[in-house]
Structure formats: C-alpha cells, structure tokens
Input
Amino acid sequence: LKAIESKIQEVINDAVEFAQASPEPDPSELHRYVFAED
Output
C-alpha cells in the first residue's frame, strides 16, 4: 500500500510541476474543450 501511495504522490507532483512550468493559456482558448450540454 505504501508503494502505491508513493507512486500516486509522484504522479501528482509531476503533474503539478508540469502545470506550473507551462505557459498561461491565451484567453481566447479558455472555453475550448469545455463540455456543455445543449
């Protein structure tokens, strides 16, 4: 169980680092890929 928790934390940390290192999206792209029912 500890190994699974450790791997999960590693994946989360990698995702956070990627997000923080990525540029801010262009405001015109903010509604792209957002699901909405008609």
Q: What stands out?
A: The two ends are 43 Å apart (CA to CA). The mean pLDDT is 92.
